[in-house]
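In response to reviewer comment 3 from the previous cycle, which asked for concrete evidence that the modeling workflow produces usable outputs, we include below a single protein chain processed end to end. The sequence was submitted unchanged, and the resulting structure tokens are shown without manual editing.
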Amino acid sequence: MTDFFNGIEPVRFAPDATGLAYRHYDPDETVAGKRLEDQLRFAVAYWHSFAWPGGDPFGGQTFQRPWFADDMDAARRKADVAFEMFGILGVPYFCFHDADIRPEGSSFAESKRNFEEIIAVFEAKMETARTRLLWGTANLFSHRRFMSGAATNPDPEIFAWSAATIKNCMDATHRLNGENYVLWGGREGYETLLNTDLAREMDQMGRMLSMVVDYKHKIGFKGQILVEPKPQEPSKHQYDYDVATVYGFLQRYGLENEVKLNLEQGHAILAGHTFEHEIALASALGLLGSIDMNRNDYQSGWDTDQFPTNVPEVTLAYYEILKAGGFTTGGTNFDAKLRRQSLSPEDLIAAHVGAIDVCARGLKAAAKMLDDDLLEAARRDRYAGWDSADAQAMLNSDLASIAAQVEASGRDPQPQSGRQEILENIVNRYV
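The workflow returned the following structure tokens.
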């Protein structure tokens, strides 16, 4: 045990409590046919919770953590604190990048040794802890070597370094029985077209992803390969802009049956979409894998990665997830960080507790909406005309035949109300 969370007891479900407690999240409550824990599948993000120093674009570190040092003793201390927090929260999963958990070595080989030593620490802790690995990934964006991308880098040596790093992270994820492996292209894009060969970079990115899929099968990894779309920031344009863009990319390189998506709320907003839009589209395309739950500050133009507090937004996201059948290997990862003024250990616990309760409220409201069937009944009614034999036959017809039928019918079809405000009022009954 460490003394970082000294005095903070494990968080329990206690609806009437005045201190730190879950007021809406009872992991054993049955919702839509599953335990709430099994529906939501919460995960803590190692990077924001334990590696982020509390900076922003205009100011540096505000957090002072006892493990903030660039050596292996500090990395082991960080792992001790992380697993202690997983236990306090009672979460079933965590996620990590390689750079979150180990210090950078003076060579690739040294970084790999450091990484593998901490993976062994994780493995030992996971023998007694209930927390498992939702997904692992590689940080191919923070170090200066990745300033021009990883897979898309103009330097083949950095492409090779990136491939080797991904291999190590996939091996570790496999070793820890991770349920997914994520590729997050933080700098797979461009800042200016003046020095960019778009076609070459996309082909390199496609080749790297193909190598990842091949290696998954080579080592017998049974988890899901996930790509995380993001439109911009830090790059002016990134090749994995949104769900639709990634789907086209996967089709182009023949990977649409091998790869699914890890969707983040903040990235959806940066792309000009709602989170529920991205989830619904991924579901329609057969690509829904997992989610990173957070929120943006809508008065800021960048990805602020705040913990979720908006129940109506969260409800609509889980509505689409439940419509799709719920998570399989995926889950709800809190890719969210404290505000830089929130300095205390209690802040870190309270942020997760509040977010978990918001998600529980949202999922329960979404399940009730689905069960009551008011929205889906309205949707079915709106498209009911397409259920007729004539309408279905028209889809297999041709323009000339359809035109002849329209002219012969003499009918003048009139628009029908989309009932948007009525449907929004229905949602508001639940949230």
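The chain has two domains: 30-372, 388-430. We consider this sufficient to address the reviewer's concern, and the full set will be provided in the supplementary archive.
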